[in-house]
Amino acid sequence: MAAGDSSDEVRVLQNLRGKIYDAKHLVPNKMRDFFCTINLDQEEVFRTQVVEKSLSPYFGEEFYFEIPRTFQWLSFYIYDKSVLQKDLRIGKVSIKKEDLCNYTGKENWFMLQPVDSNSEVQGKVHLELKLNELITDNGSVCQQLVVHIKECHGLPLINGQNCDPYATVSLVGPSRNDQKKTKVKKKTSNPQFNETFYFEVTRSSSYTKKSQFQVEEEDIEKLEVRVDLWNNGNLVQDIFLGEIKVPVKVLRNDSFQAWYLLQPRENGNKSSKTDDLGSLRLNICYTEDCVLPSEYYTSLRNLLLKSSDVQPISASAAYILSEVCRDKCDAVLPLVRLLLHHHKLVPFVAAVAELDLRDTQEANTIFRGNSLATRCVDEMMKIVGKHYLKVTLKPVIDEICESPKPCEIDPIKLREGDNVEINMENLRYYVDKVFREIVRSSISCPTLMCDVFYSLRHLAAKRFPNDPHVQYSAVSSFVFLRFFAVAVVSPHTFHLRPHHPSSFKETFMCEFFKTFQEEQFTESVKKFLDDVSSTESKEPSGVSEPVHLKEGEMYKRAQGRTRIGKKNFKKRWFCLTSREFTYHKQQDKEPIFTIPIKNILAVEKLDENSFNKKNMFQVLHGEKPLYIQANNCVEASEWIEALCRVTRCNQRRLSFYHPSAFLNGSWLCCKATAESTEGCARCTADVPADTQIEIDGDRETERIYSLFTINRSKLQKLEEACGSIAVYQGPRKEPDDYSNFTIEDSVATFHTLQQIIDIIEKLDESHEKYQKKRSSSAKYGSEENPIVGKVS
């Protein structure tokens, strides 16, 4: 099939990044312990650490994750932590998915809104509606409304569990309210109802002597179908889950079938006060990319990849991207990944660093600003340096965070009974330990980082030939200030710790950097910098260690049987390395069960109906499948991706699998009775095999296309500026629209701009074709939702 003939090849990928800063004026108006969660609809996917005894807690936690499913609302909940009772939800900020673009990349204070059952509505319902004409026994014509309620999707969890939903279907008018009810479906957020209800829309009048039999029609303009979803409470009150309303007049004589997003009740929150719960400061960046087949990006990809060969570098497509983006970070994230994926990053960083050095007048300020060069190196270190940081710093950071010794030496912050001399000894002990781990870690430094540092070192020495120390400061400004220092102060940024630590910050780092300046340590630092900025190959001693890929707590289904014959789920600590997949009773305990990576045959999602549990997946190996439940959809997606990636090259990978479990003597998916029956569904497509660097080149190119599209007006301004400079070569007397742009060669820059604009116009056409096809194949009903999150 020709490219573009089918939208099946288009991937819609979403991600979310940002920062939870702080909250203020929270209720109740007294010192409490608070934490904040991020929820997709009502599924928690991220949680901050608890900030103790505060009225205005500062969380300061960054977040980034892929969103593996559709959602309606992004919500942030503030909780009051309780020791003995259930944590209390103070308030929330909820933003409709379609409105997220209004807040992207901006720091905003949001007013907290109250949390009640009406404001927690989520999910959608699939309906088919039809008007039929019937002839009654007495010969009159009667219209009949047929309502087929097929299914619902994405209903909320109730007290952390799947709900027991049922629906009421009503025909409502000025003089009638006919209601019918479906059966209750047990323990599911995606109930399949498949029930049909019939309503008479017109009623016959009584026979009179003055006229023949007549039909008195109701005013169809005023009739509507209403579907309400409820959770069956058994012995307690049923909980409202949402409603939809469809005017009968839209049906006419046609059959109408669509998905409808569930809505809150119209009068649900009108009486609630929203101005006294406090507010939350957030920075949110949501992106949704429609990634076309790879061949569509050939021209843009090639133009970007040859950027390092363009003279001057400021006339290259990659550099122009950074110039037109309001925030350089938006450009750097996809650009570094793309260049890294195609082995073009080192020459590009060298070229932009050389441009940086031209404007650097003093050696002691080298690479200290937030330029394109420094941001590219920062992002590169985050991507390729994760494992390096784990093997170097994680053990000592774990020790500091889990068994903290008092290190406060500020007299103002000392608590009663604190001994400043003991605290200083503790601080020095930690600093020495971190320092020793770093300076002897050069053999673990990734080759790509060494290549970049080598280029920076020699460029700096060339720029300041009379300064013997500049070759070291050029590298140390990155490896210490922007890499190790950030990891020590904010270990959660590099996934060394789950949350931002509160044990140390400014005091620790101040003492930490003093260490590097002491004469007795100078030679150790220089030797380390020589090693990490050398191009000579490093021969590791002994057998190479397995790469640590992922770890965390999940639930697994017991492989054996309990006394009563039922298999249960137990909480376990899971660990994935490049060598094996293990689970443990607790973190840091010996493994209970080990699967060598080479023995894994497939990793796939498991249908929810297998055990009535969400976010489940299965690891197929030589024995029975290992069934695992993750804590949320993001976590499940990350585990499946990591496991698939590390097992992609296994020779015995399966082509088919069973999407449901084998229970009570048969597979739930295909009803086969033999447990050894071959799978009934084809395994999902392979993923990239690189276990350390996760890069989707087409997606990064799509992101860059989107950035060029968003900043099209700046591209045109830059194009006009190049034209003006080419025509008028005289001095500029006043600042102009393009004074902030770097234009070294107007002709070369103009030529590149023309290529960029031509390419994005062609990609525009391809995206428009896809969007038309997408809108024609997806039929939705009402999607109106009230705005819940407000910006103060």
Q: Report the total helices.
A: 15
Q: Quaternary arrangement of the chains shown?
A: single chain
The major beta sheet can be summarized as: 7 strands, antiparallel
The overall pLDDT, averaged over residues, is 82
In angstroms, what separates the terminal alpha carbons? 52 Å
How would the global form be characterised? globular
Hey, roughly how much beta strand do the residues contain?
Answer: 25-35%
Backbone CA Rg:
31 Å
Helical proportion, percent range: 25-40%
If strands are numbered along the chain, what order do they take across the biggest sheet? 23-22-21-20-26-25-24
Helix and strand composition category: alpha+beta
Give unreliable regions as ranges.
1-7, 204-216, 268-273, 539-543, 561-565, 686-692, 782-792
Could you give the count of β-strands? 31
Pfam family, one: BTK
Keywords: GTPase activation, Metal-binding, Repeat, Zinc, Zinc-finger
Organism: Junco hyemalis (Dark-eyed junco)
InterPro entries: C2_dom, C2_domain_sf, PH-like_dom_sf, PH_domain, Ras_GTPase, RASA2_PH, RasGAP_CS, RasGAP_dom
